[in-house]
Amino acid sequence: MSENPRSMPAKTRRRQLIKATIKCIAKNGLSGTTMADVTSKAGLSLGIVNLHFETKEKLLIETLRFISDEYRNGLDKIFFNDKLSVEEKIIAHVSFDFSRAITDRDKLAVWFAFWGETKSRPTYMSICADYIDEIAKNLTSLFSILKKEGNYTSVDPDLVCICYTALSDGLWLDLLLTPKGWDADDAKAVAMHYLATQFPNNFSHIR
Amino acid sequence: MSENPRSMPAKTRRRQLIKATIKCIAKNGLSGTTMADVTSKAGLSLGIVNLHFETKEKLLIETLRFISDEYRNGLDKIFFNDKLSVEEKIIAHVSFDFSRAITDRDKLAVWFAFWGETKSRPTYMSICADYIDEIAKNLTSLFSILKKEGNYTSVDPDLVCICYTALSDGLWLDLLLTPKGWDADDAKAVAMHYLATQFPNNFSHIR
DNA sequence: GCAAACTGAATGAATAGTTATTCATTTGTA
DNA sequence: TACAAATGAATAACTATTCATTCAGTTTGC
Question: Which of residues 46-85 of A touch strand D (CB under 7 A)?
Answer without folding.
Answer: 46-48, 50-52
